Amino acid sequence: MTNTTGANRTSRIAGFHKKTPRERLDLVAAFADLSESEVAHLAEFGNLSPDLADRLIENVVGTMNVPVGIATNMRIDGEDVLIPMATEESSVVAAVCNAARQVYEDGFTTSVSGNLMIAQVQVVGVSDPYAARLRILEQREALRALCDACDPVLVRLGGGLRDVEVRVLDTLGGPMVVTHLIVDTRDAMGANAVNTMAEAVAPHIAGWSGGRVYLRILSNLADRRLARAHAVWRTDAIGGPEVRDGIISAYHLAEADPYRAATHNKGIMNGIDAVVLATGNDTRAIEAGAHAYAARSGRYTSLTRYEVTASGDLSASIELPLAVGLVGGATKLHPTAQACLKILGATTAERLARIIAAVGLAQNFSALRALATTGIQKGHMALHAQNIAMMAGAVGDEIEAVARVLVADHRVRLDVAQEVLAGIRRG
Question: Out of 41, 252, 266, 342, which one is annotated catalytic?
Answer without folding.
Answer: 266
